[in-house]
Design a protein that fits this description.
single chain, about 325 residues, alpha+beta, Beta-lactamase, 5-stranded antiparallel beta sheet, two-stranded antiparallel ribbon, 7 strands, about 45% helix, about 15% strand, globular
Length: about 325
């Protein structure tokens, strides 16, 4: 057999075998959902770690994002305080895919105000797991005499003497952030069960001689959102319903204002005003915490602020949200 013919046959066999191997590898990768093939290549090096973390191929991008966010969020906070737009600002960000996070003053405590409506909602969903008819139960609404005016008033108010289901009261409490609904639901809930669920979610309401008002930090509150996203405390059905309800919240001046209109934001805001008559001054707190559903790559952002002007505080939260979304998008497109 001529040498050239032999070389051609050998070359053909080599190409054929390599082609089969590549085809088999691609077939295996696709039929295992893609990611399993990638994970198998590095599991042997990190046998004791979560493979989805140990085998993360985007580690450099994640670190680049964290450094960028840390710098730019600090710049925003420092400039806002310097310009007297706020007296105190805290931010916590967590990438729900890579698990990486950034925190600036993330453990500083604030008065949660309406943020407490979310753990109260979780309490009702937890109770419904053992009382399936809970949401269909009806109550005649009676306004609590201790109810205070809201700076961000509900679009629709509850009517005195009208009958409502628990489900509708919960929806009013979250979607419209109705304080009357919250006070009513808190009053009819078993206090021991309420205290247990609050404690389970990391919210330890302080009732002591100092009457401490500041007891929730951005990182603590973000853990509640992560718990819902992972459905680690409630059933998947309950967690999904809560996140959907949070996505219908009609407050659009904070986190929502910083992202494109088509992006879903499941969030809860809280506001509080204290008028010091002796000092003739007003202290406002405005917070907004939620899950921003960036396409196929959601993240948590929680911003808590204190200042004397709600408009300034809304703008700070909006800027923080826009900054994170922009940086997040730029890094993930690389």
């Amino acid at each position: 057999m001529p040498k050239n013919t032999l070389k051609f046959i050998l070359l053909f066999l080599i190409v054929f075998v390599v082609g089969l191997l590549l085809e088999q590898k691609e077939f295996t990768f696709k039929n295992n959902g893609g990611i399993n093939g990638v994970l198998a290549d590095c599991k042997s090096n990190y046998g004791l770690l979560n493979p989805f973390i140990a085998c993360d191929l985007s580690e450099e991008k994640n670190l680049e994002l964290i450094k960028k966010l840390d710098y730019e969020l600090n710049e925003l906070i420092n400039s806002s305080i310097k310009d007297k737009k706020a007296t105190k600002i805290s931010v916590f960000f967590r990438d729900l895919t890579s698990k990486k996070w950034v925190g600036i003053n993330q453990n500083e405590n604030y008065a949660p105000a309406s943020l407490l409506k979310l753990p109260l909602l979780i309490t009702y969903f937890k109770l419904s797991e053992i009382q399936p008819t809970l949401f269909s139960e009806k109550y005649v609404f009676k306004k609590d005499p201790g109810s205070h005016a809201q700076d961000f008033e509900p679009e629709i108010r509850l009517e005195e003497g009208k009958e409502y289901t628990v489900e509708e009261l919960l929806r009013r409490m979250i979607v419209y952030s109705d304080n009357d609904a919250m006070l009513f639901l808190g009053e009819v809930m078993d206090p021991d069960f309420l205290k247990k669920v609050f404690s389970d979610t990391g919210i330890n309401v302080r009732v002591d001689e100092k009457n401490e008002k500041d007891f929730v930090s951005p990182q603590t509150y973000s853990n509640i959102l992560r718990m819902l996203y992972n459905s680690s405390y409630l059933t998947r059905q309950s967690s999904e319903k809560i996140l959907k309800m949070l996505g219908e919240t009609n407050f659009s001046d904070g986190l929502v204002a910083g992202v494109p209109s088509e992006i879903l934001v499941s969030h809860k805001f809280g506001e509080r005003k204290i008028i010091d008559k002796n000092a003739s001054s007003t202290i406002n707190e405005l917070h907004d915490c939620g899950i921003i559903y960036y396409p196929e790559h959601p993240y948590i952002l929680c911003v808590m602020t204190v200042g004397d002007n709600f408009d300034n505080l809304k703008e700070i939260i909006k800027k923080a949200s826009a900054l994170v979304y922009k940086d997040f998008g730029e890094i993930n497109k690389k």
